[in-house]
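Structural prep section.
Before we set up the soaks we want a predicted structure of the protein with manganese (II) ion in place, mainly to decide which crystallisation condition to try first. Input record follows.
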Amino acid sequence: MTSSSELENAALQAAKFERVREAHKTEVAEDYVELIDDLINVNGEARVVELAERMGVSHATVNKIVGRLQREGLVISRPYRSIFLTDEGREMAVEARRRHEIVVKFLKAAGVSPETAEIDAEGIEHHVSDETLDCLSALTGKIEI
Amino acid sequence: MTSSSELENAALQAAKFERVREAHKTEVAEDYVELIDDLINVNGEARVVELAERMGVSHATVNKIVGRLQREGLVISRPYRSIFLTDEGREMAVEARRRHEIVVKFLKAAGVSPETAEIDAEGIEHHVSDETLDCLSALTGKIEI
DNA sequence: CTGAATTTGTAGCCGTGGCTACATTTCTTG
DNA sequence: CAAGAAATGTAGCCACGGCTACAAATTCAG
Ligand SMILES: [Mn+2]
Ligand SMILES: [Mn+2]
Ligand SMILES: [Mn+2]
Ligand SMILES: [Mn+2]
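Run finished without errors. Recording the tokens verbatim:
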């Protein structure tokens, strides 16, 4: 922390920032596969227009990102057809949703309004380690009692 | 959330993702001004080499980012000299540190190991609203009792 | 004071994720 | 079935934050 006049080890500090940069690399993929999975479950399919609408982004941007997700083996997409998840993509979606829900539940239990909880969780979810996730779950249980 | 077979309003969902994108825009600035402030307080000055070392990034990257921070009025930097914060930059640093510390303290109180708490906080800090921050502070107090 | 080491700057490259504008394909509707 | 509408694709632009390689300035020793 170093709120007192000491600077922590430089390499350790650098490792933290590297971790954050790492999280940001997978963040977009996580949000997309989670949304694609939602759309398939509810609508029967995931289409570019709806992804664009729900991500708040142009359809051109969605196209580019879906292309990358396909290169990375997370989705399958053929021209002018709807988008599917690979097994790997589905696994990522499940994992992302799990983290998302734990964070939202915790925030609500902590007294945050549902709207704010949802907003903040959308960012926080990508930065919570398994260890922290476990602690949040446990704490949610305790608070609710 | 929508764990049950319902999709939330598209515009609302889009607003959440926009918020996250917004947070990511200011994130780099926040981490840099906070670190610059730390270095000035402890070392008497902030230099490019040390920023690079502590951010885990090349000095060329630091240079580019410092240039942007200067354009945005957060720092003052003259060629081959050390880097200073403007009043606005200092305010941002103080605010960033405040959020950082609240998140770290909460995580530790929640039972997360100090190392993990520091790592996760470095990312989480940029996604917690004031409302959530207040709830985390309150909760930290309660847990510690 | 001079030469070497260190620090800083800069040029130019890359991938990502934004956008608009326009082209093409598919779907729907009369 | 043919138009027109809607969806999808693509090209080309931008800013950001990474990088390496090289140039220039500053600092430090001898
Ligand atoms: Mn998210
Ligand atoms: Mn983030
Ligand atoms: Mn941070
Ligand atoms: Mn921080």
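Observations: Chain B touches chain A through 56 residues (CB under 8 Å).
Flagged for discussion at group meeting.
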